[in-house]
Amino acid sequence: MATRRRPRWPPAAAIIIAAVVIAVVLPAHLAAAQNAVKDKSELQRAIDWLTLQRNKDWGWGTGTDTAQAIVAMEMTKTGELLERELSAKQLEIELLARLWQHHDPDSDTLQQQDDEDEALTVANIATYSMALASACHDPRQFHGHDLIGSLLQHETISDLDFSYSSLVACESGTHVRKRHIRRLIEIANTKHTVDSLSVAILALQCVEHDHRNRNVKPLLRKPLATLIALQQLDGGFGSLHTTALAIRALQEGKATWNRTNAVDWLLN
């Protein structure tokens, strides 16, 4: 088997996204009882590991680790409701601290962080917004801050960050503007890296489904075919992270691709 390349995003994010993909994709598409038992076991191991990483304050450490973990915990409904609410409250505290730091970098209470994972980058704001939405909190009304509005103001960012922020905005129920859709279509038809292509497809699928934009569906055929062509002989799409993203992007399409090998690669 080929060596797995280091994901662009933090390893923790890759593991969490993989766990979420397993939870969403496998029950619907693997019918064999033996495989189902195996998949459930693998998912439970991932959830158990994630739960053990939780700190006494109900968070998962620095940066966006808490936000990433909450997405997985909420999508898999792991733990009691009170436990998830306590984690969501810790997320609010961490994010408010980041916002305070962002607007008052000279504060004596908070030290300025140089780590990209700590800063309020577009990708990190999108991750916080996704976590808030998964915990039934409106990221458009976060203690006087419109996080989605902040995302949509940044249009000169990288294609990957733009696609990610558009996906989060759409998932939060925000209307995606036509010029944003045009850029997503351009990205989906010109970018041949798995991460950029997968996230652009996911954003366009959200526009199609959540906003009932039927004009988008025919435009997804070529990007989906391009993504399928990027699947490697071992079943994966590169790294753990990119394979998880590709599975998520391809799960709703009708095109033929080797889903079983991709899932096996992800689990093994």
From TrEMBL:
Cyanocob(III)alamin binds at D195. Transmembrane segments: none annotated. GO terms for biological process: cobalamin transport. Keywords: Cobalt, Disulfide bond, Secreted, Signal. It is found in: Secreted. Disulfide bonds join C170-C206. One of its GO terms (molecular function) is cobalamin binding. Gene3D superfamilies: 1.50.10.20. GO terms for cellular component: extracellular space. Residues 1-33 form the signal peptide. Its main location: secreted. It holds the Pfam family Cobalamin_bind. This is Uncharacterized protein CG3556.
